[in-house]
Design a protein that fits this description.
alpha/beta, globular, about 30% helix, about 20% strand, 15 helices, Rossmann fold, 7-stranded mixed beta sheet
């Protein structure tokens, strides 16, 4: 049911009652007037209950049929915005605009600033575990000592051999490292000083069939950038998505400014959008940033052949999952794909440059750095080489990604395939006297019990302390305040823990991945590992088919 309509019901009812009361003759019986008013109230309530029930039944049938239940044309009730003029966002936000109130911004020290500078990384790696759903032991097509060009095949999944995973750089394969149970941890390449590229013959995008385009993307490595929802897995080669979504801004703590990241890549980005447009039976949908005083980069605002929706609000408004929910929600009957902005440009470069260009602008962030900055490198760069000479101390935790949903890595680890951020924070292993009982102003928190909540613009110096231990999983309502989606996260988590498949699906598990509940985990009083719980639930539902 559309927000704001309950208030419209109340206003209409009060106006009706007021007019009815005024229509009574002054000489009439007070008892008769009171009876008439009560009767009017009962009739109005019954009328609106019937409309509400019928509207919900229509939406339930729409969901069963695979239609978008949020489509306004399916509703028998007018939206409040159809009657009262609503704010349309900033003047530059032309088109559909969505303002979200739920969420929470975490402001931390160590944001990347300044121009993009060249990095000094020499070793790069592709890590099979970065690709959700892949077999632990894929078929490796190279050996230690082999030389490869950027774009040469490195491995493929035995369950899906058509999708090729390619080298981000040219050079010598110096290691094929194994993990638990002889799984492939990574394939490490020492990069050439002068990069060489495998030559690609891209099809003519204007005349080629979808089948020809898919075949080219599978062989060239471009398919590995396409992720499918539900489940956040590599996109199926046999399904055509209803829509493809691209979020053009990131609101996670210390996240890179994608306007900076995409500077000078407009042609490749637009070409990538054109490619994606041929892969879907719907539209490529861009989520645009309407939170600032100035419009986002023209690379995004002038993009053609796409649907555009403007979003404003707090984190996680930049998450593509939130944008999908408010544009064309995922149901049990439909499939959508998601692609990162730099991944779109890489796909476009397959056509504009005829090569696999794995260039990445990465934000090196965190208060434990001498100089947070943007660096130009390539996919899978060595973390230690990117951070060399830039750590203020050694008592730190290094994350590939952001502090909410990133992964802990060592100095000799590698940037994950889809990441464009490295975060360095203080290792919080110190004991806190009295813990949360002290009126601490230095701890970022979504709780109004701490005085810091009264100063929302405060910038904090983060550490890894949890500020408490795991407790009973109590109902607090915190999750619902953090997630701007029509989903009850706490009930969903309990359904996962009890292996209740029907409830999981009914409560919206198909719409979520880990990053969507990361803020809920941050705010959780019970200190529950919500991201891990959600992934276990997604894997269970996926296995059930």
């Amino acid at each position: 049911m559309r927000k704001g309509f309950t208030r419209l019901h109340l206003i209409t009812s009060l106006l009706f009652i007021h007019q009815l009361a005024q229509a009574q003759s002054p000489s009439g019986s007070g008892a008769n007037s009171f009876t008439m008013i009560l009767l009017a109230i009962v009739v109005l309530i019954a009328f609106f209950i019937i409309l509400r029930v019928s509207d919900n039944l229509v939406r339930i049938e729409a969901n069963k049929s695979g239609l978008n239940s949020e489509d306004e044309s399916l509703s028998s009730l007018p939206a409040a915005s159809d009657i009262f003029k609503q704010k349309n966002g900033p003047a530059y936000a032309k088109g559909r605009y969505v303002a979200l109130k739920k969420g929470h911004n975490i402001l931390l020290e160590g944001k990347a600033e300044g121009p993009v500078i060249a990095a000094n990384a020499n070793t790069f790696a592709l890590q099979p575990a970065n690709f959700r759903g892949m077999s632990p032991i894929p078929k490796v097509e190279v050996e230690v000592g082999n030389t490869v060009k950027a774009g040469d095949h490195l491995f493929f999944d035995k369950k899906n051999p058509d999708v090729k995973y390619v080298s981000p750089v040219s050079g010598e394969v110096i290691a094929v490292n194994r993990g638990d149970r002889r799984s492939i941890a990574n394939i490490v390449i020492l990069a050439d000083k002068q990069q060489q590229y495998r030559s690609l013959n891209a099809p003519n995008l204007e005349t080629c069939s979808r089948e020809e385009l898919v075949s080219f993307l599978l062989d060239s490595g471009g398919w590995s950038f396409l992720r499918q929802r539900p489940f956040d897995i590599i996109a199926s080669t046999t399904e055509i998505p209803d829509n493809i979504f691209v979020s053009t801004f990131d609101t996670a703590p210390l996240a890179p400014n994608l306007d900076v990241v995409m500077e000078g890549k407009g042609a490749a980005f637009q070409r990538g959008l054109d490619v994606l447009g041929k892969l879907t039976k719907g539209k490529v949908q861009l989520g645009l940033d309407a939170t600032g005083e100035n419009p986002p980069s023209a690379v995004f605002t002038t993009a053609t052949g796409v649907g555009k929706t403007w979003f404003s609000g707090k984190h996680p408004v930049g998450n593509v999952g939130v944008q999908i929910h408010h544009t064309a929600p995922i149901t049990t009957k439909n499939t959508v794909w998601t692609v990162g902005v730099q991944d779109v440009a890489t796909i476009g470069a397959l056509f504009t440059e005829g090569r696999f260009n794995a260039d990445r602008v990465v934000a090196i962030t965190g208060a434990e750095l001498i100089q947070p900055k943007y660096v130009q490198t390539k996919i899978g760069a060595n973390i230690g080489e990117l951070l060399e000479g830039n750590l203020a101390n050694d008592h730190v935790r290094i994350l590939t990604g952001d502090v909410l949903s990133g992964s802990k890595v060592s100095k000799d680890g590698f940037l994950h395939f889809y990441d464009d951020q490295i975060t360095v924070v203080e290792e919080g292993d110190q004991v806190e006297m009295f813990g949360w009982l002290l009126p601490d102003l230095s701890t970022p928190s979504a709780s109004k019990a701490l005085p810091g909540s009264r100063f929302p613009d405060t910038v904090y110096r983060a550490n890894t302390n949890m500020h408490g231990e795991k407790r009973a999983f109590v109902v607090t309502g915190q999750y619902e305040e953090m997630l701007p989606m029509d989903i009850y996260p706490q009930h969903l988590m309990k359904a996962i823990l009890t292996n209740d498949y029907e409830k999981m699906e009914g409560l919206g598990i198909h719409e979520l991945i880990e990053e969507d509940v990361a803020l809920c985990e941050f705010a959780c009083t019970s200190k529950q590992p919500l991201q891990r719980i959600l992934r276990e639930g997604l894997d269970m539902v996926h296995e059930q088919g």
